[in-house]
Amino acid sequence: MQSKSENCRWLLRPDVVSTVLNDGAVILDLRTKFFFSLNASGWAIAQMFESGATRSEVLAASLNWGAASADHPGINGLIDQLIAERLVEPANNSVTAGAQVTLAVWTPPMLSKHREPLQRIMVSAFDPGLPLAE
Amino acid sequence: MSALAVASSPRRQLVYNCGPAQLAIDFEEPALGEYLHGLLSQYDAPWAGPPNTIQVLVESNSLPTVASGTTGSYLTLQRLRVDCIDGRLVSLGHLGSRMEFEMNASRARVSVPPHPDRPALVEEIEQQFVLLLARAWAQAGWTPLHAGSLVPPGETRCVLLCAPSGSGKTTLTAALLRRGWRTLGDDKTLLRLQAGAACARALARRFHLHPEAARWFPEAGNLTDWPRYSRWTDKRVVQIEKLWPGRLLDEAVPGAVVQVERNPLGPALTVIPLEATEILNTLLRQVVIPGEAAHARPLVNCVVGTASRLRGARVMVGHNAFANPDVAEELEQILRRLLA
After folding, report:
1. What's A104's domain CATH number?
2. 3-class secondary structure for chain B?
3. Whole-model pTM?
4. Nearest-by-CA chain A residue for B76
5. What's the complex ipTM?
6. Nearest Cα residue in chain A from B278
7. A14 in any annotated domain
8. What is the pLDDT of residues A87-111, one digit of tens each?
């Protein structure tokens, strides 16, 4: 997957919603209802795909964040995860490199998928859960 | 609540204050207004400030609505499929009711078809109104949270109680109300995160309490004297102020979250701390998040931002646990520790 996508520009899907925290971010895929936690480095990588980025651009940016070439497998692994989970999609040709992303302290990037998706069918617009038998 | 009859029959307009939203409803069929009164009058917590008024026309159709064309891409509910099309929410019910909410114009139209199962049809229309209100509250900057809450005496921070209906949120709440704790409600709360501070607001001041609870709370009297909540449950709609006066609060600051579970074969009380991920998971599962990113984003931001400030625990309550007063006392200590 990595070699095929080397020069492909990827974009975070529009129905992926992200919320930034002090130490990373949470992203929710509205299509699958799965949500994911990212540490700060993982979020810096994912953030590049908000406006569109190639794998090479992310690797280049990571050097500015304090990553070393030894970190590249981890970075590629996270990008592969984003692609495999379909959180990013190939961007069309009109999308160019986006705004610069900054990161205070580099640590190995992490993206963890939460075990259970949120409910797809809900009781009502106020109550997401199915009632238990009394 | 506050239903105000504005015009006389045959058409009838009723106005309901429902938290930060107000519904001005024109009923073509006045009887339908009476059926819906129970639902619409329950959002009776006081609310300051001018509400966002939504004009609603409830019209009776002579022909059933053709239930095609909606995919449920916005929301799929047990009784409704909802799409968001050009700034309108379009919701079709399984029995043929249809609601169209023009969000920018604050105007909605509910079409009621003929149907032989009238109670089922009324329940479906109720769900259309819950959808309308949930969207209106979100437009007003609030996140509807299916959770109860408890506030220790003299404090302003609350423990949010999360669980599916039937898990014992209301019973647990009642067990501490009688010991001086206060509440925003047993399962309907509005949440807001503003300038980095989380706030929970009361919406409904009535509880849905199972008559069985009178075994542990004798001062509640015969709970079967209260009206039944719905035809699907024995729960009764109870005015908390009449059972335990002075226990209702309008707002509180969320400080902890408890995932409530029944544990019929286990000990009276089991407590397991929740990690940050589990706290987020618990809270997210109590919020209906639509498939439209622009609508989902503020709700997710609110929940994630609030969850990051909370401590949490999973509290499993054994069968007949509240027969022993020591259990309520232990529970008090557990919740206080979470808020400490």
Report:
1. 3.90.930.60
2. CCEEECCCCCCEEEEEEECCEEEEEEECCHHHHHHHHHHHCCCCCCCCCCCEEEEEEEEECCCCCCCCCCCCCCEEECCEEEEEECCEEEEEECCCCEEEEECCCCEEEEEECCCCCHHHHHHHHHHHHHHHHHHHHHHCCCEEECEEEEECCCCCEEEEEECCCCCCHHHHHHHHHCCCCEECCCCCEEEEEECCEEEEEECCCEEEECHHHHHCCHHHCCHHHCCEEECCEEEEEEEHHHHCCCCECCEEEEEEEEEEEEECCCCCEEEEECCHHHHHHHHHCCCCCCCCHHHHHHHHHHHHHHHCCCEEEEEEEECCHHHCHHHHHHHHHHHHHHHC
3. 0.92
4. A121
5. 0.88
6. A114
7. yes
8. 999 998 676 666 689 999 999 999 9
